Please model this.
Amino acid sequence: IFATLLVSCTGKPREGALGPGSEALDPEEAEQLLREYRGNFGQDGDPLRRRGPDLACSACKLAAKRFQSKVASKIKGKMSEDERRQVFHRGVKSACSQELFPQQMAVVEKEGKDFYVDFQEALGSQHG
Model:
């Protein structure tokens, strides 16, 4: 979920709690997002955490790798802020595209840790 920009008197986004590069979230919007999260995960818990810390970490790594390849690697230091934002928004749409996700996931255990892989890769024994 991406924060909406809060614009100060100068017309520039306010810096968020994570420091430079982060954007402030309106407190009312933050509260609404928290209520939605609690509503979605309150009864059964977060589906990733329910499966254990190894799999939660694995799912996060899959998302981070996709973000890195589709978004972060395309943003260059010499780009203007507007260009960076355009590349970011295009990249996020691409990184979140349903077609990029495997049709079916498998859980593989290696060296005592579980992790997610594409089911077809697991059948091909690419993960030992």
Summary: The helical segments are 27-41, 47-50, 53-70, 81-95, 119-123. The mean pLDDT is 76.
